[in-house]
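ok so for the tutorial part 2 we go from a plain amino acid sequence to predicted structure tokens. step 1 is just haveing the sequence, like this:
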Amino acid sequence: MKRIFFLLLCLCLSAFSFAQKTNETKQWTKQDSLRLQQLLNGQVEIVVDDEAQRELDRLFNPEKWKQKSTPFPKKEHEV
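step 2 — the prediction. this is what the tokens look like for a chain of 79 residues:
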């Protein structure tokens, strides 16, 4: 019984410590608000790298993706 209580206590303390660290690092600042406002107003360009663009195309334009890819590469049979 003491072991279970000790394990629960350790688990609770770990969860509390993690929650405390998470709250400290995720505070919204005035700079964040200004940056968001600039993005929404179109004052800052949003740059998307090639890999992210491919993923967006795959998710939101499946017809385009299906035309470019095949599920299995075709192998030539060697005789």
